[in-house]
Design a protein that fits this description.
Blueprint lengths: L1 E3 L5 E7 L2 E4 L5 E4 L2 E7 L5 H12 L8 E4 L7 E3 L3 H10 L8 E3 L14 H6 L13 E3 L14 E5 L2 E4 L4 E4 L9 E2 L5 H4 L11 E2 L2 H14 L4 E6 L3 E6 L7 E6 L6 E7 L17 H14 L5 H12 L1 E2 L2 H16 L2 H6 L1 H11 L4 E6 L5 E7 L1 H10 L3 E8 L7 E8 L5 E9 L4 H15 L5 E5 L5 H8 L5 E5 L1 H11 L6 H16 L3 H14 L1 H8 L25 H10 L4 H23 L8 H14 L3 E6 L2 E5 L3 E5 L4 E2 L3 H5 L4 H9 L14 H7 L68 H6 L1
Parallel strand pairs: 2-8, 9-10, 22-25, 25-26
Antiparallel strand pairs: 1-2, 2-5, 3-4, 6-7, 6-8, 10-11, 11-12, 13-19, 14-18, 15-16, 16-17, 17-18, 20-21, 21-24, 22-23, 23-24, 27-28, 28-29, 29-30
Helix pairs in contact: 6-8, 7-8, 11-23, 12-13, 14-15, 15-16, 16-17, 18-19, 20-22
Length: 771
């Protein structure tokens, strides 16, 4: 019963455990059961409402239909199954003083829509099945993506399940009754093992939950269905679902204990079991208990595979929704609650900094306490970057495909062997200019930057302004990511170009970026000009001093794209389905393992340079053998080969620019150094030395204890409440593809008639000319 109060708040009195009786006029009356009261306001979400109701009656949230009557209609029960339903229920009774809400303990058979024609099914309102959802429906197979459907549409998957096109999750169709799955005639040997789980009066169970689960397995094994007469935290009474069958069992709690004991039982069936029933008690919680162990080993266990496995192993036919919901329950049992993980975030941050002194772990919330952003940087990463890595940071992001979406922002560095070295990362609710600005502020504070530093990042997303503004007191350089730059060029240039021409333009942009001298740069952009004057002007106006080697003033060591940290982003992708605290801890574990492994590997090295740099220097030494050296003045030398270059040893400079761009002596410099009888290693950047590499990985990251949120105050942060962000996963499969340095344009079209590119046979002009 709901009593309307001021301020759009209501007191809901929810009833469960009773049963409906049909009156002479066809109306329904509810008799018996327990009642509990709760307050609802206009902002309450359905999931919160259902969780609170489930706690009231100690019910499983996945198997708990909630229903009510419309005003003046006591014949048709309406289901509350989402936020809109809850809003409608309050709206329908806005002028009434009360209504009844019923929490059912059994599910009932749905009308069979499998024989409807496709055209009729696609137009069927769910209200025909006893559900008030005013939206078009589409019949699809398991390959259709909800993103392909019209707005406000639902997709029927089977008799009892549809998919909300906006949420990309199944929604149970709740008419008066829904099917719970039936058992195959070839009864499974696994299920037969449960036939004697219930032994009779006097049998004890550790909890009500254990009794219910045992009873459910017993019913499955003996091929009958039951329904609850009473079902609460201290007593359970069930009877056979078949009309007139005397089978009945009653169990209740032993006083002063949590034990449940069977007090009464009639074990006789007169209903012939499966012959008179259409379903069995294969609930979502039961499915979860069955698949939990397999889900540990195979996190990508699909609902359709769950359906097939349950049918094969237990002889039970589930519908899609039962399998999907069972998997969701099992994931939450294995991983913990997504919602609670956000609430544990303050305490988790404290523990990260406590177990890793010198680390930074900070978060921010919105005004409504919902999660906004989290920044993490471990002391081992900060120390390693400052002591052994080049002053070069790559900024990039990757979307998170978790329940609450979000984006991972990261700053990675290149170690002395050109391996990825994670420095800091953040989880934010969305990739915005403001979040990037916040990330850079936290990064600057954590690093205490005093030296010159180069960032390789996109020029969009507010990064161009943020980097310049936040690091204005530091000698900082922003090298534009050449991949993002070339993508922007193709978007902005309006000409109708074939894929082949686009590919050539992008190749010219890359060549211009890598060209060490202005002459080479100009040659490449002239090539672009021959294709498109608009593209040429765009390139000239794109500030080449931020992305072209010929003009860039910082030291980017020939790294031209910001996706250097692909390894790090793959770790986040592997852990994106975990609750936020577990996802962060999984990333922490990967970084911890990376540091330990590389430290151990480097202890075996016997060379002065790291292996990859040793190999590069060896190649330059081989090329230097055929070069001729002559002195100009002081420490300036002329080197002749395919070209004539000038080397200045005092400035570590060569006119070919190879030495300055890479940090390793080019072949011309090596020729001069060898001619003087000196050691080339003395002229290599210190960042490539094995000793510097070992410094990079000298500190360790320590595990964070698996602790629950404290019940008592331990610090000021522990009192902060953090709720999940407002974002939810959109419909359709999320993208798993990130850009690679060589993947710049899509494969061009090729004509099957003339073998030319940029068109297909239907638009082939060669064929027309030939005619």
């Amino acid at each position: 019963m709901i009593q309307v109060m001021a301020g759009k708040k209501v007191i809901a009195i929810c009833q469960s455990g009773g049963e409906f009786e049909t009156n002479n006029d066809g109306s329904l009356s509810y008799r018996g059961g327990d009642a509990h009261a709760m307050e609802i306001d206009e902002h309450m979400k359905y999931n919160d409402f259902k969780m609170e109701v489930a706690e009231m009656f100690n019910s499983n949230v996945g198997t708990m239909p909630i229903k009510y009557f419309l005003p003046g209609n006591k014949k048709t029960l309406i289901t509350i199954s989402n936020d809109k339903d809850l809003e409608r229920m309050m709206k329908f009774h806005g002028e009434s003083n009360s209504t009844d809400i019923y929490v059912l303990t059994e599910e009932v058979v749905a009308p069979d829509v499998s024989n409807m024609s496709a055209s009729r099914s696609s137009r069927t309102s769910l209200s025909e099945a006893g559900v008030l959802i005013d939206a078009p429906l589409s019949v699809v197979d398991d390959t259709t993506q909800p993103a392909e459907l019209l707005d406000n549409s639902f997709v029927i998957l089977d008799d009892t399940t549809c998919v909300d096109a906006h949420m990309d999750i199944p929604i149970e169709v709740h008419p008066l009754l829904t099917s719970v799955g039936s058992i195959d005639e070839n009864h499974s040997k696994v299920a037969q093992q449960w036939q004697n789980n219930i032994t009779g009066v006097g049998q004890r169970f550790n909890s009500v939950h254990e009794f219910r689960e045992t009873l459910r397995k017993y019913a499955i094994a003996n091929q009958f269905a039951f329904k609850y007469k009473k079902n609460d935290s201290h007593r359970v009474t069930v009877k056979c679902k078949a009309e007139g069958c005397p089978w009945r069992i009653h169990a209740s709690r032993l006083s002063t204990t949590q034990l449940i004991c069977i007090k009464k039982m009639n074990a006789t069936h007169t209903c012939e079991g499966a012959a008179v029933t259409t379903g069995y008690q294969a609930t979502r919680s039961w499915v979860a208990s069955i698949i939990k162990e397999k889900l540990k080993v195979h996190p990508n266990y699909k609902p359709k595979d769950i359906v097939n496995d349950i049918k094969q192993e237990y002889g039970i036919q589930l519908n899609y929704f039962q399998a999907w919901r069972g998997k969701e329950i099992a994931k939450e049992q294995l991983q913990g609650s997504y919602k609670e993980a956000y609430n544990q975030l303050p305490f988790f941050c404290e523990k990260m900094m406590e177990t890793n002194p010198g680390s930074v772990a900070t978060f921010a919330t919105n005004n409504d306490s919902s999660f906004h952003r989290l920044f993490v940087s471990f002391h081992a990463s900060l120390y390693g970057f400052q002591q052994g890595c080049r002053p070069l940071l790559f900024l990039d992001s990757t979307p998170l495909k978790s329940k609450y979406q979000g984006t991972l922002l990261a700053a990675t560095a290149a170690d002395g062997d050109d391996g990825v070295f994670p420095v800091a990362f953040a989880v934010v609710d969305a990739e915005t200019d403001d979040n990037w600005c916040w990330f850079l502020l936290q990064l600057k504070s954590a690093l205490s930057v005093a030296q010159s530093i180069t960032f390789v990042a996109d020029r969009e997303k507010g990064l161009r302004e943020s980097i310049a503004d936040i690091f204005r007191d530091v000698d900082v350089h922003h090298g534009y990511c050449i991949h993002y730059l070339s993508e922007q060029l193709l978007r902005d240039v309006k000409g109708q170009f074939s894929h082949e021409v686009k590919r050539l333009m992008v190749e010219d942009v890359y060549a211009a970026a890598y060209a060490p001298r202005s002459v080479g740069f100009q040659s490449c952009v002239e090539s672009i000009k021959s294709i498109s004057l608009e593209a040429y002007n765009w390139v000239i106006q794109s500030k080449p001093e931020h992305w072209a080697n010929a003009f860039f003033q910082g030291a980017r060591y020939n790294h031209m794209t910001s996706n250097f940290g692909e390894l790090f982003y793959s770790w986040a992708s592997d852990a994106h389905e975990l609750p936020i605290t577990q996802m962060v801890d999984a990333i922490r574990g990967k970084v911890m393992e990376l540091i330990y492994t590389r430290r151990e590997d480097s202890n075996q090295w016997l060379t002065r340079l790291t292996p990859s740099m040793e190999e590069k220097l060896e190649k330059e030494s081989l090329k230097s053998c055929s070069l001729q050296v002559s002195i100009l003045a002081g420490n300036r030398f002329e080197v002749r080969g395919d070209s004539i270059e000038v080397v200045d040893l005092d400035q570590c400079d060569c006119s070919c620019k190879g030495w300055q761009l890479t940090g390793l002596p080019c072949c011309h410099a090596v020729a001069v150094i060898s001619w003087l009888g000196r050691n080339p290693y003395d002229y290599c950047s210190r960042y490539f030395m094995t000793d510097s590499y070992r410094l990079t990985y000298s500190e360790s990251i320590h595990p964070v204890p698996n602790v629950e949120r404290p019940m008592q105050k331990e610090s000021s942060q522990s009192l902060v409440t953090v709720t999940p962000p407002l974002t939810r996963r959109p419909p359709g499969r999320p993208s798993t593809k990130r850009f690679g340095s060589q993947e710049v344009v899509r494969r061009q079209l090729q004509c099957s008639r003339c073998k030319g590119t940029g068109h297909n046979k239907s638009t082939c002009k060669e064929f027309l000319l030939g005619c």
